[in-house]
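Hi all, long-time lurker, first post. I run a small reading group and we've been trying to get comfortable going from sequence to structure in the token notation. Rather than ask abstract questions, I figured I'd post a concrete chain and ask someone more experienced to write out its structure so we can walk through it together at our next meeting. Sequence below, copied exactly:
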Amino acid sequence: MTPAALTPAVVCPRLAVLCASYGRVRRGIETVVRELCLERLGRDWPVDLYGPPEAPELPAPHRTIRVSCAPRESTAARRYAGLLAGTRWPLAGAHDYEALHFTARLADTCFWSEPYRAVFNYAGPAAALLCRAKRVWDGSAFIHSGQAGMGPVEVAQAAVGPDWYVPLSPPARDWLAGKRLLAPLAPVVPNGVDLVRYAPGPGRDLGLPRPVALFAGALDEMKRPLLAIAAAARAGMALAVAGDGPQRDEVCQRGGELLGDRFRYLGAVAETEMPALYNAAEVFVLPSFEEPFGIVLLEAMACNKPVVTQDDAVRRWLIGDAGMLVECTDTVAFAAALRAAAGCDWQDRLRQRAQRFDWDIVAGEYRRWLRAA
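-- Answer (accepted) --
Happy to help. Here is the structure in token form:
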């Protein structure tokens, strides 16, 4: 399963990880960095984590190299996003400014001082260009996985020509296969779930009437939490919302208006508390539009909870028979799916589906490639 075209082996025991947001926010990419690179591949190779000033200190033999860069919440990032709003430039968001600033500051670190067996780039297309230059400079291979979904950012990443471009799903691989790319497409390797941490167990007391739906994620236009509120109200269900983001105030206002005492806003929830939160609900809901993957869906399924999410090719492959797919803008159909999912006897097939995505299996694929390089 090793990609056909690889950079010749570099005699270097260390891996490098580039992530402009690790320690600042907790979303999918940060979960991938921790679960895959630090906790699993880090058992076999020492890792240099290039992250922002908030990145945690890693225990030896790993190292944290902090890169001074502006956060996505900074005034400069917001102005950048405002100026480019409505343009066709694919890197127009505040988080893109954070990644671009991070990439510009990498030159002030030890990134160029030693070769790596491989560099895992989670810092965007500009950082990919630096990785390509480093490969020319000292032979360090670099890896990219399609965490941005299917769009121009991923085309730009693949066009830079990483040694391994890893698609997260068969639909993503098929989508990229017809494009002109410099990167050899590796076999599909998805994101994963920690089946020890996320498992059926006691649930948190939410003080809500049954049945309860749970939404967990960023409160923004892409995740579409307002659709979850409207559907829960129509279904006559309670809804708990965990997360933060630019739509927080609107979510709280709309939840109170439509659901009253059947609504609970929990704020940003610590990861250690998430298993009990999944286990507190009858159903997990994520109405995201063009979700790149959806690790939270796997976490809910691992707790043996059904999921209701947007019907698209990636989710059909990911969810299988462990939930219900629906056009989430259709409130009537969305509400019906919530009621059906909460009332169905799923037995244990939800967790069985999640077991296919064990992080240990995922890490084994990367480990095989790294040892062959």
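A couple of things your group might point at:
Residues 33 and 293 are 15 Å apart (CA to CA).
The longest strand covers residues 47-51.
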